[in-house]
Design brief:
There is one protein chain. It is globular and about 25 Å long. The protein has a two-stranded antiparallel ribbon with strand order 1-2. The chain contains 3 helices and 2 strands. It has one domain. It is mainly alpha-helical.
Length: 69
């Protein structure tokens, strides 16, 4: 995956890839664009977590904002 012009790899469990794909579709974005957005938010904090952790936390926070399915 390329984020901000840099190729990177991300290790996530299949359930998180699926959740990321669903959130990207809901926002009308390719999942790489959503990951880039999450990455930009991640690096803006004083002590940023690794990208995979940031994605998991972002998905969990987003799930809290949605009605249960």
């Amino acid at each position: 995956m390329t984020i901000a012009g840099h190729t990177t790899s991300i290790s996530l469990e299949p359930v998180f890839w699926r959740a990321l794909e669903l959130r990207a579709q809901a926002q009308g974005l390719p999942y790489s664009a959503l990951v880039a957005r999450i990455d930009a938010e991640r690096i803006a904090v004083a002590d940023p977590p690794n990208l995979a952790s940031a994605i998991r936390c972002w998905l969990l926070a987003e799930a809290g904002d949605s009605p249960p399915r």
